[in-house]
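Sanity check record (used in CI):
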Amino acid sequence: MVQMDGTDIRSIPESIKHLVNLQFFNIRACKYLTQLPSGITQLHNLRRLGLFKTPLSFIPKGIGILQNVNDLSGFVVANNESSSKLEELNSLKQIKMLSICNLERAQSGAIVLRNLHCLSDLKLYFSENSSEPNEEEKLAVEQLFDELVPPRSLEELKIIGFYGSRFPNWMSFSSFEKYVTFLTRLELADVTSITVLPPLGQLPELKLLTIRNASELKKIGPEFLGVGVNSSTKIAFPKLELLNIHDMPVLEEWSFGAQVELNASPMLKLLPCLRELNISDCPLLQQLPKDLNHSAMKSLCIEKANSLKSVDDLPTKTEVLQLVDNQNLEKIYCLPALKRLLVINCEALFCVENLDSLQELILFDYNKESLPQWLLILLQQCGLQNHSNEDFLLHLQCSEKALRQCVEGGSHWELIRHIPRVIAYEDDPFGAGTGYLRYSKQPYVYDTNL
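Expected output for Disease resistance R13L4/SHOC-2-like LRR domain-containing protein:
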């Protein structure tokens, strides 16, 4: 094994070819290394070649000779006479993990991937564009992607930087069963020209889905579910457990559009295995999809969704809610199964109610000189002054002035002393000299430095 990841190496000697028994060669993230010796293609026992994030200008011609390679990260597409062409990958019949960089440079991708029957993990990267791609460039990458049909063995797929206006034909409703039946993890990132998502809800084995920076996507609609009209049992995202939606600057509307069908057909199931939904940096998103309450979602995190006004009517199984930097959020209500609530920097929040199962409340608010009114009301509504749950925890990080109101003799002490457990800090709990309050009702513990 040769392990040189992250080093300052600037060149590799041609004599590397004499290491005929070398099986693992890792030179990822070597920022000064721009070329590989041609002798690397003579390492016939090589099983892993790690090149990702090393700024290579090309891969020497002959990479297809290394037929024992099962892990190749960072194959660089180039068009000079000395470089390996994309077609050479067709010879790597044992490959299981493959990542390709600068994919837009490829001239042809026909049958390159389709016959790699051991391939389970594929990552496709396009170069960052310094200018907006024109229609001809978009059409070229769309055609290239249509040719890059993956094998049915594929389980994980990542597409980064694709700037075509549509996804490839093999990601259409009619092609899923033929090409990507066993896909379990999918990430689409920096897909900057896409305006419509593919029908990913019909991927039968998909468990993790991340969509990041689809900067032209304004609406997520029923096409995302892809529920076939000819299906006897309609299920959208039958095995999806984790859904991440990030960095959508123009996303305004998210609706599954399934409400009518749900009322008409009890056979339609939506996200029956969903555990966690994470949404961040969607500044124009005004509300969550109404049909989300038919899912099995247990945890929801929303961050920097500044047009969102309320969070309510979540699935009956939702137990964890995290809200961070949602500047216009006003209301949180009607969440009877919620056990854990975290609120950070939601300045406009004034109504939090009907959280009957709450066991832990975490509030970070450094700007106010007093505890927010909604918190005081919520604690009273939940009956925390005579709370039967001896494990209930109130965790505060707040200003010094707000914290002083919580200690014995402060204006909020009469409320605080009836809460089973309280942990409160001034600003950063790890800062030197930070004020704190630690309180337990039973057994009685009272500790503060204020």
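The mean pLDDT is 90. If this sentence no longer matches the regenerated tokens, the check is flagged for review.
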